[in-house]
Amino acid sequence: xxxxxxxxxxxxxxxxxxxxxxxxxxxxxxxxxxxxxxxxxxxxxxxxxxxxxxxxxxxxxxxxxxxxxxxxxxxxxxxxxxxxxxxxxxxxxxxxxxxxxxxxxxxxxxxxxxxxxxx
Length: 119
Description:
61% helix; mainly alpha
């Protein structure tokens, strides 16, 4: 038995392709100089906002590199790296472990706990 194909999908795809083609024809190309409209009087005047936005990228080249100004950076890294990777996590995990084994942790789930009976 041969299946009957509906032409709806093909028509929708064809209509979409035509719409994309028309949009590309209208918006996708720059007109020739003879066809382009004459510039308006507003474009010929000085705009300080445009001038300031043009200067900002040039100002970024004048900025100094970000680096530690107070002494040698090796001194700071030799303190901050072990502090942030060893000391802070050890204190945080230790505090969580103590809280985990206290009576206040998950007292709603533990039947007969002191805190659950108190409340």
